[in-house]
Amino acid sequence: MNGFHIVKREKPLDIATQKSSKLKLLARNSSMEVREQTIYKDKMFVIYPADKEDNFEFFYILEGEIVSDDTDEILTKGDSIFFTNLKNSMNFRANTEVRILYVINDSIFHVLSDEMKEIVETTNKVHEKDQYTREHGTRVLQYSYLIAKQMKLKGETLERVHFASLFHDVGKLEIPYDILNKPGKLTNKEYEIIKTHSYHGSQIIKRLYFKNLEEIVLQHHERLDGSGYPNGLKGDEILLEAAIISVADTFDAMTSDRPYRKALPKSVAIKELVDYRGIHYREDVVDAFLKVIEND
Ligand SMILES: [Fe+2]
Ligand SMILES: [Fe+2]
What we know:
Elements: E1 14-17, E2 21-29, E3 32-39, E4 44-47, E5 56-63, E6 65-68, E7 74-76, E8 80-84, E9 90-94, E10 98-104, H1 114-129, H2 131-150, H3 155-167, H4 177-180, H5 188-195, H6 197-205, H7 213-218, H8 240-254, H9 266-275, H10 283-295
Antiparallel strand pairs: 1-2, 2-3, 3-10, 4-9, 5-8, 5-10, 6-7, 6-9
C-alpha cells in the first residue's frame, strides 16, 4: 500500500553501531526519527541540547534499567522521559543492558554512528594538515546545501549532499603536504597526484552507511562534457549530488586565497560558472546557484 511501511524486527531501515550502544532506525521522514537503541551495561549515554527551536525527544524503556547521573533517579521498563527544548545535556548510565524506543523530531541517525565520528576525525586530520581545506569544506557545504534547497531536494538526497560536501576533499589526507601547499605552479606529475584525492576520499568514506556517498565524493571533479577526473564521466553519468558539489567547490576555490594566487573576485567565479553552464556544470545547478547568490 502506498505510504504504508512494515519494518520487520530483523530488518530495520538501518543499523549504526557505537562503542556503547547499538541503534536501529525503525522509521523516519525528513523531520522525524523513531529508533530502537540498545545501551550496554555500565555505559553512559548523554542527551545533548538540540540546536533547533522546537526540539522534541521522547524515550520509552522497553527493557532494563538506567539511572540519571544528575538526579540519581532510576528508570525501568515502562518508564518514559520526554524533553522539549533541553538547555543542558543530561547524563544517564545503564545499570543493565537497556533497550529503549526513541522518538525525535530531527534527522540525526547517521551522525550518531562511530563510523561517522571516525570520518569526522579523519577530516580533522586533513584540516590540521591543510588550513584551506577546513574552511573550504564548511563553505562548500553551505553553498551545496543552499543549492540543493533551491532545487527543492529533500530527504536522503539532501542528507547526502550535506555529508558528501563536507567530506568531499577528505582524500587530501593522502596527498603530501608539500604538494598540497606548494606556493608555485604544480608540475604535471604533482597535479596527477592531487587528482587522486577524489579516489582516496571515496575509499575513506566507503565505510559509512550512506548509499552513494562514496560515488559522490569520487565524482566531485567530473565535468558534464567528460573533461573531468578521475573517470571522464559525462552528462547523466554524473550524480546530481556530485554536480551540485562541483559548482559550489569551483566557486569557493576561485574566491579563496590559495598558496599560488590571491582570491579572485566573485564576479570572475560567477562568469566562469555561467560560461561553462551546460559544458562543465549542469544548467539547473548553475541556475539554482545564481539564485542562491542573488538572495545572499
Ligand atoms: Fe576536490
Ligand atoms: Fe574542494
